[in-house]
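[Discussion] Sanity-checking designs against the backbone

I'm trying to build intuition for which residues belong where. Below is a structure token string of 120 positions. I'd appreciate it if someone posts a full sequence so I can compare it with mine line by line.
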């Protein structure tokens, strides 16, 4: 079994910064891509940023230049450094990882979500 545990959410004023972390644990053979998604009230979940096992990154246009995704493969952890936060960044942020539990078996796993609230 695999678990993703997020931390680092909270309340911050507009213009401030937060750093989210997500650690994967359990029966992990290898981790492929990892990423962050978010869901605001009344809206669909949307991609924020992804990072491959090799370090290639992809960002939503709305966060480019403000957010940075990174990972520590030795710790099975992905991070999201968020700067210049805006009220529209308010959402529940979810960690996602594509994980191989054996050589041939893999699946997508999600964290429980962490709330980020940006006040104006």
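Best answer:
Here's mine. Compare freely.
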């Amino acid at each position: 079994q695999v678990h993703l545990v997020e931390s680092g959410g909270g309340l911050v004023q507009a213009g401030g910064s937060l750093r989210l972390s997500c650690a994967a644990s359990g029966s992990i053979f290898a981790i492929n891509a990892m990423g962050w998604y978010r869901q605001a009230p009344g809206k669909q979940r949307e991609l924020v940023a992804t990072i491959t096992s090799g370090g290639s990154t992809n960002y939503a246009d709305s966060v480019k230049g403000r957010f940075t995704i990174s990972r520590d493969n030795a710790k099975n952890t992905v991070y999201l450094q968020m700067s210049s936060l805006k009220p529209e960044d308010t959402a529940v942020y979810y960690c996602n990882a594509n994980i191989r539990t054996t050589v041939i078996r893999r699946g997508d796993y999600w964290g429980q979500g962490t709330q980020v609230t940006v006040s104006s």
